[in-house]
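Batch manifest, entry 17 of 40.
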Amino acid sequence: MNTPASPDKNAAELKNERFAMLEDIAQELSGDVVFPTCFDSTIQIGTVMRSPTATLARIAAAVSADPLVASKLLQLANSAKYNPGGPAITDLENAIRRLGMLNVRTTALACAMAQLRSSKQDKFEPMSKALWEHSLKTAAFARVLATRLTRVNPDTAMMAGLVHDLGAFYMLDRAGHYPELVERPASVAYLIAQWHESIGYSLMAALELPEEIVEAVQEHDQPMPPVTELHTLKEVIFVANLFAGGLDEWARLDLGTPLERPELTQPEFAALQDEMDEAYRNLLHVF
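Output type: structure tokens
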């Protein structure tokens, strides 16, 4: 007859697996970062684009190696945002020319993150879905805020919003390898809330994302003085994250501070809510 494991044993095993996962991640990040295979084409596209001799044809060839990324780029290039009423764009070179290099990398990253999200354990599905929707909302909201209220490049803001929780996706993928954590998604959510920012910083550096973006998303879930006007990319991401539901993450951080922020009722920001929601729906339709 099998004897059920005691709560104390389960608690000890859970604690050990938490430490084991964090230690494994720390070891991975201390050397050459090994990304899940769905990031392979993203890394290849980024490598080609960083080459000083890269031509539009070479970039298009790299993109065409991943049919999903290629199709999303064509879909995005023909969207109302980028091609309002114009003739249909049917080839990758023109799509890349229309969207710009940053949007190409953003699309490749979005496709990789979406594939990473879809491969999760069933018990992580609600968490991974919420994380994906939050990332897309933050990206869409950041683009609108940057466009309407700042001189920050809207495409830069969108990419920063998309990857601001990259560390959380990575941790969720790794958590699937630890049985005690798979059985306790609430514990995984707490662990992610505590560690995803620092892990995400290392991952974005490994992907060689623009330094401006890497710096802007640092500590995006840490309280800062009230933001009444937007001037920097970091401020745009901070406010976009709040409007996209960032306070839910703050609730798991044991910050000891009231979960209220004046930004959410600041008239200039709140007036853009409908436009931000529409931008999110458009992005959700593409990805």
